[in-house]
Every structure is written in C-alpha cells, then in structure tokens.
C-alpha cells in the first residue's frame, strides 16, 4: 500500500513525509532513487526502513493509516532564529 506522500524542498535537501514518517534526503538523485523503489515495492521498502531505523511515532502497525496527521512540526522560537545578516554571513564563508 502506498501511503500519502509529501515532498518539501528545504535549504539543504528534501524533507519527505510518507504516511506519518519523515525522511530527509540531501540530494535529488537519492530522493528520486528511493522514491522509485518505494513506488515499485512500498511494503518491502517500508520494512527495510523499519528494520534499519526502527519505528517513530505511531506507525508500529504496518497497516497504520497514520491516525494523527494533524501534529504540528516542531518549530524554532523566534529568538532562536538567525537573522538574515547572520545567515548571509554563513553563506559568504562557504
């Protein structure tokens, strides 16, 4: 069964939510490779990830329809966020 899938491009790669699990990929090639594998054999790929990384959230049941999708992602408090100046200085150093 292919679970609901969301891909969000982030600063250093891609954040992918499959069902109620989040996976991060650092480059597009790796994302596309794993996505193709998942679309071809979702049950096998899910079991590989469970075996390799364990369970996170409520998806210990393979039939989980992700009953709690309304969870808000954790966020950084405004006082912890770097300013635009700080961010640009970081990129200039690279």
Helicity level: 25-40%
Q: Let me know the number of strands.
A: 3
Indicate the proportion of strand residues. 15-25%
Which stretches are poorly predicted, pLDDT < 50 over at least 5 residues?
Answer: 67-74
Mean pLDDT across the residues is 75
What is the radius of gyration?
Answer: 16 Å
Which series of helices and strands comes N to C? EEEHHH
Shape: globular
Spatial order of the strands forming the largest sheet? 1-2-3
- Helices, by number, come to 3
Distance between the termini: 43 Å
Largest sheet: 3 strands, antiparallel
Given the helix and strand composition, which structural class is it? alpha+beta
Could you characterize the architecture of this molecule?
The chain contains 3 helices and 3 strands, in the order βββααα. The protein has helices spanning 28-40, 42-53, 84-93, and strands spanning 5-10, 13-18, 21-25. The chain has a 3-stranded antiparallel β-sheet with strand order 1-2-3. A hairpin with a 2-residue loop joins strand 2 and strand 3. Helix 1 (28-40) crosses helix 2. The N and C termini lie far apart (43 Å).
